[in-house]
Amino acid sequence: MLIYTQMLDTPEDRSKFELIYRMYRGLMFHVANRILNNEHDAEDAVQQAFFAVLKNLDKFSEAGCPKSKSLIVTIVERKAIDLYRVKQRQAAVPLEEEYINVPSASEVDAIPDRTVLAKAMAMLPTRYRELLFLKYDNGYSEREIAAMCSMTEANVNKTIQRAKKKLESILEEQEA
Description:
By secondary structure, the protein is mainly α. The protein has helices at residues 2-6, 11-36, 39-55, 66-89, 105-110, 116-123, 126-137, 142-149, 153-175.
């Protein structure tokens, strides 16, 4: 709170902000945590909301009035939603080949007694190979794969279709 109060010029603004801070910090955390379902992210959202309150301190007539409370709740909700959207846009960690025991294409060439299909599977792009193994080797449905890989079910279906087509073309090339 000391950092916040150092940003204010007048003692009246400092006392108003201190009162707002003490009255609403628990409520703000509760609102942010309800949206984000993560205490650390909720704390970040509350900190961002307090900076926004500092910028808009002149809009607060009294700290304890219902208008101030609704404004604070609105600010923290917006900050939490913004943080949620940022977290959703961050790329999901891709499946690593060693996690599903699939060798890389260079490792396949080093092993002399691989079947034609195994070599063709190793030549597929990693994403195609992963989805084919999840579907046909592990028996997951498209819906389950979509949930695991943060994809839509339609996207999983189309990617598997493309993977099969690519596998077919690789097998045709190997026969020729």
